[in-house]
Amino acid sequence: VSTLTLLIKCLCRLKKVDLGFSVLGITYKYGLHPSTHMLTALLHGLCMEGSMVAAMELFQEIVEKELPFNEFTYNTIINGFCKEGQIDKALNLFQDMIKCGVTPDIVTYNTLIHGLWKFGNREEAKRLLIDMPDCGIAPDVRTYNVVIDALCKEEKTQEAISLFELMMTEKGIEPNVFTFTSLISALCKERKTTEALDLMEMMTNRGLRPDVVTYSSLIYGLCRSGQWSEVNNLLDKMKEQGVALDIVTFSTLMDALCKVRRMKEALAVFDLMTQRGIRPDIVTYSSLLRGLCHSGYLKETSKVFDKMVSQNIHPNIVTLTGLLDAYSERGMIDMARKIFDEMLQHGEKPSTITYNAMIKGYCLQGKIDKAKEIFEQMEARGVLPD
RNA sequence: UAAUUCGGGAAUAG
Questions:
Q1: What mean pLDDT, rounded, does chain A reach?
Q2: Is the dihedral of CA A258, A262, A267, A269 positive or negative?
Q3: What is the pTM of this model?
Q4: Which of A28, A153, A252, A339 is surrounded by the most beta carbons within 10 Å?
């Protein structure tokens, strides 16, 4: 059974959850009983691909057929609903688990606090934070990370740093790589790159090794501040430490080069990543296409666009809005409009940002009547102006 | 126990 569980986990990671279910069938065929572990792995697979309806069906089947379940089972499905923003369902399951005599653990609390905070129910999140010690559960480093990161995302970096200090000095909890990376990323977004680099030094002094995420966050910030020599230092350090660049690192570098119009280098980064066997994704392509078009590499733009489609990566609203704006900035308002109309035809609903870009385009051309027309369409289609 | 919870990249304006 543990071998088959391992197989299911591998299949789920390859996004072949349906094959995972075949393995479950095989388990029965051999007269074996699926373990909690195995069922949780399947449930996790469904949750990760966002199939919460199927996940809930599986969960109910487990309960009804009296298959084994435990806190891992509950935590997995609660996390699935939290990720989808269906916090009410997550909270119902939380009540359920208590009723079934499964005791919520630190993972349950961390999951719910994260979900509640992320989807705007901060009061409820704080209530859980206050309640957890009464249930005999002490917040751990991950609990702090959830709150620290939430504060960072609300641009309350100083509060996040205060909490970080309190966690270490008063609670005696050691920060981990995630804690530092959240803070470093927030500081980078505020262009406080010196403080961010100081934190990296602090983490290494505490015996923590920055990983690819930490480095990528710093590279992002340093690029935005134009500290290119520092970027090179970090790239050297990554090499020295044996930390491989990944798709995000490459895309971050490439995007930064695009933004300062160093297109030759941007293309070189793009080539390098493909040479290293990293497949560009929709983010990489959106960034490159906008950059190429903006800098006037119009032939390259169409070439790359076709290449993207041929790799079965389809432009989304961000890709198209980026291109729309880039064409309009080059004065090619008709091309911009063409993209806009095609979005509507293909059922891709333009967002507020798309409308803003289109309106801006017409305004720059002095075509105020056209801009007004778009504005009216926007209201008619129920897209809110900001 | 390779089972469940935390961190990084793309669009307008700012």
A1: 94
A2: negative
A3: 0.93
A4: A252
pLDDT, greater one: A292 or A63: A292
Return the SS3 of A85: coil
A325 CB-to-strand B distance under 7 Å: yes
Q: Kindly indicate the confidence band of residue A15, based on its pLDDT and cuts at 50, 70 and 90.
A: confident
CA atoms within 13 A on the CB side of A175: 33
pLDDT digits (tens, 9 = 90+) for A119-150: 878 889 999 999 999 989 999 999 999 999 99
Mean pLDDT, range A107-114, rounded to an integer: 96
Q: Which amino acid is at A180?
A: F
Q: What pLDDT, on a 0 to 100 scale, did the predictor assign at position A26? A: 92
Rounded CA–C1' distance between A201 and B11, in angstroms: 34
Nucleotide nearest to A386 (CA to C1'): B13
User: What is the tally of helices (H) and strands (E) in chain A?
Assistant: 22, 0
DSSP code per residue over A332-360: -HHHHHHHHHHHHHTT----HHHHHHHHH
Closest nucleotide to the alpha carbon of A251, via C1': B9
Confidence of residue A41 (pLDDT cuts 50, 70, 90): very high
Rounded distance between C-alpha atoms, residue A112 and residue A341, angstroms: 42
Q: Chain B: nucleotides under 7 Å from a protein CB?
A: 1-13
Q: Is the CB of A116 under 7 A from strand B?
A: no
Helices A36-48 and A71-83 pack at an angle, to 10 degrees, of: 0
> Which pLDDT band, with edges at 50, 70 and 90, does A12 fall under?
confident
Question: Which pLDDT band holds residue A14 (cuts at 50, 70, 90)?
Answer: confident
Of A residues 230-289, those with CB within 7 angstroms of nucleic strand B are 246-249, 251-252, 255, 280-284, 286-287
Please name the residue whose C-alpha is nearest to the C1' of nucleotide B3. A37
Enter the ipTM.
Answer: 0.86
The answer to whether A181 CB is within 7 Å of strand B is: yes
Encoded tokens for A240: 């020295």
Q: Is A317 exposed, middle or buried (0-12, 13-18, 19+ CB in 10 A)?
A: middle
Q: Is A49's CB less than 7 Å from nucleic acid strand B?
A: no
